[in-house]
Amino acid sequence: MSGSGTPSPLPQADDPTGLQSFAVQLRRMNNEFNRIAQEFAHAQGLHPTDMQALIAILDADADADADADAPDEPMTPGRLRKQLNLTSGAVTACLDRLERAGHIRRVRAADDRRVVHLEYAERARGLAREYFRPLAHGTDTARGRFTPEELTVIVRFLTEMNRELVLLRQHAS
Fold it and tell me: What is the pLDDT of residues 91-142, one digit of tens each?
């Protein structure tokens, strides 16, 4: 208590909605997601960069906001290179490995045969779906502990956090 009779504000470390608490929880969640993804990559004989590429290709279909520079467009090797901050040669090597392993397909655009779109192969999609099913169940269990209104706020926070991370990355380049 302060001398005025009002409670003292909680120190930042003890504030469950404070910046430090958010940072700790976001790091923990990110580390757990990374461990699960690394285990999948290891089980599939993939390099961590290959896993990042697979996620980017999968998300390009699901989220038009994944790349603010090219919304509503399929993933291309050029977009992937930019998103993963790799050289053209490194992206080509990564895509060659993923294609040989049956995880992706390169598909020529119908309107411009010079453009290559990257697609997550259906067989690989099923393999990933099966592997990550426990994560999906865990996510659904956690979601079930919140009201629809709370989930709306959580999704809004995650959307804004992702937007800030994209801006941070763009300003760094």
Answer: 999 999 999 999 999 999 888 888 999 999 998 989 999 999 999 999 999 9
Give the number of C-alpha atoms closer than 13 A to the C-alpha of residue 41, restricted to the C-beta side: 18
Distance of CA 40 to the CA centre of its chain: 15
The predicted structure's pLDDT at residue 21: 92
Q: Give the list of residues 6+ apart from residue 74 with CB closer than 8 angstroms, or none.
A: 60, 61, 109, 117, 118, 119
- Per-residue tokens: 125: 């999609």
Top-ranked range on mean pLDDT: pick from 68-82, 118-132, 147-161: 147-161
Decide: 7 and 14 in contact? Cβ < 8 Å: no
Q: Judge whether 108 and 115 are in contact, CB under 8 Å.
A: yes
3-state secondary structure of 119: strand
| Site of tokens 């603010």 | 68
Token digits for 50?
């290959």
| Residue-level length of the chain | 173
The residues, any chain, with a CB within 8 Å of residue 2's CB and separated by 6 or more, are 8
